[in-house]
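Worked example (supplementary).
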Amino acid sequence: MEQFDGYTYVEGGVCAAKGFRANGLNCGLNPDKEKKDLGMVVSDRVCSTAAVYTTNKVKGAPILVTKRHLKATGGKARAVIVNSKNANTCNADGEAKAERMAELAAAELGIPTDEVVVASTGVIGHILPIEPIEKHIRELTEGLSYDGNAKAAQAIMTTDTVQKEVAVSFRLGDVTCTLGGMAKGSGMIHPNMATTLNFVTTDVAISTELIQKALSEVTKITYNCLSIDGDTSTNDMVCVMANGMAGNTEIRTEQEDYACFKQALYIVMMNMTRMLAKDGEGATKLIECTVSEAGDLDTAITVAKSVIRSPLFKCAVFGEDANWGRILCAVGYAEAEFDIHKVDVDLASAKGVLPVCRSGSGKDFSEEFAKEVLSEDEIQVRISLHEGDVSATAWGCDLTYDYVRINGDYRS
Amino acid sequence: MEQFDGYTYVEGGVCAAKGFRANGLNCGLNPDKEKKDLGMVVSDRVCSTAAVYTTNKVKGAPILVTKRHLKATGGKARAVIVNSKNANTCNADGEAKAERMAELAAAELGIPTDEVVVASTGVIGHILPIEPIEKHIRELTEGLSYDGNAKAAQAIMTTDTVQKEVAVSFRLGDVTCTLGGMAKGSGMIHPNMATTLNFVTTDVAISTELIQKALSEVTKITYNCLSIDGDTSTNDMVCVMANGMAGNTEIRTEQEDYACFKQALYIVMMNMTRMLAKDGEGATKLIECTVSEAGDLDTAITVAKSVIRSPLFKCAVFGEDANWGRILCAVGYAEAEFDIHKVDVDLASAKGVLPVCRSGSGKDFSEEFAKEVLSEDEIQVRISLHEGDVSATAWGCDLTYDYVRINGDYRS
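After joint prediction of all chains, the assembly is encoded as:
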């Protein structure tokens, strides 16, 4: 993991910050009893809560319910209930079922229903059976613990092959604060927003307005720069909850403390974004594309995302083939303004740096060294536009036989 | 093939219309001597010529040269020279080489260099060796014949598995006219424009202005509604040449004759588009998505293309899995305005019609019948937006193991 001055990686995921308990179990939505399918995260105190959602017109019922709840409370929440295996989307009874999940959680926790965030992930268009959740809600809440983060992280996995958690601690004045998160997502991942389910918790005290602002800004340069397959999901959500239990003076202005907090959020979200890319469905390699010397941020992001998304380039990376023409092709069809004749491209990995293109034309290189560079499981594409001084990174993965296998028969 | 009143399918591809000769041979760009890599089409008389090109910022050198030629002549041309195996793109000497190809053809044919259209397809960023072309140009021109269309169609194939030719004859007044074409393309195919190399010839007499207008309009609803993999190529071109040898009164206004001509162009281009989709790299199934009852044409096209492009849905079709939620997901992220709660979706094939979604929500269906419908090799997705009366169709194919295999090591 990349190191950042003043920030220390710690264990604990969504339970790393003070006052957050979590749990996860199998309630029977997933017939495989070994696989958890129902999770919960609860704060000891009510939290300033921000969320960003999918831009898909088809929005999962849980998204609609969560939006309504956060609006009703003015951005306050105490708990998250989430299931995998069924997206509860495109069902006539979807909202009633999502609302019922919130009610079940609220009743057990003794909190208002509006303070519950609801999320679902899995197959679209299958009726969500509510009985398994009703039957296991007590077990779920009774099992909540301050080190239950791994169980919750497992409960949101679908085709994910690894659980995804990151947390950092840092100082605000003389107070130690912590911010951690968990994420799921493997296929149907593409900008824009938010491309997966992500829950971040922190003990920082911060106003609802500023937590939403920080989340929106960090999402733009992390999750929204991630593409596994170009499909924008219907159920994507990133939710950040801040309970203030660290004891810092509440952040109410965009001063130094806000910048420190935002950097912590960036570190956690950027690392989760990388994990999501690396665990893309069927992926064998992480592709990280950095566009530098762009005239503005949107251009840098657009070009980086275009490369990450190209199926042809993704296949070439899988085949460890330095087919840089496909990179330049994807740079060329990015919808942004720049001079293609100034573009330089390098491929890089732990094995070294391979310049493949200068000023828009090919550069001779050793195929042997190219193979070596591409044999690594983390591949970097470095593109310079020579137009300005702005950079952005996008994350993706290779396109493999296994992506086709996994998605050729996902429902069964 | 779909039948159209007043139009008869005929043999002959680019040689079907009067006065067009063609040829193709292996000049050595392709080390496999069985595979043709150099082709030519020549008209007995100078032609009104229209072309549309890739929108990629990276444009193959042949595109730049062809544009210059057609500008210099005011839209007149007599010959096409085209090679496969090497795209002559992103090379410092690209334009000089493309110009040299035109000069070689012009010298042998005894016509001005500006009357030659040049095209290349294949790997990007490899220097094009000109010697094989210089060495074989005489053999190529001496072998031109009025039934050489198949040889030319073969010479433009790259990863194509079948040659692609269509032609129709029709009446303008009491004159019989013919319009035919050939196409190549299998991967790196995605709107916008033109997604492949396509050459259309006709003996109709028509002004340069109107042939360009017809081509632009028909391209929008045929080639630009095709997506194999979402990668917009650098070398795409559709070129139509009309030599007037049928003897009709030249079409100079948008009257009935113009409509008849445009319909012929639509039939040939639509059929080639279908062929391209069906022969998409690694494809086992054609996917044809028709969006009807849209409020306007752009909405219908945008939604149809969004579905055709979804990797998740493409994998589901490969797996013969009626995962309609992925269709609705792709409808939902299409950048167009409509009410998702009014959307109906049917899947269909020669085996029957399967309604899967009504008013944005799932509909129960027999999985057994679904499997049967999806077992066919031409699958239709029928979407109704219930907003207006406009329809559009987009064409694509499934995403398979073979797509990954073919593109994992294309250069070797």
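Two points are worth noting when inspecting this output. Chain B touches chain A through 60 residues (CB under 8 Å). Chain B has two domains: 14-277, 286-408.
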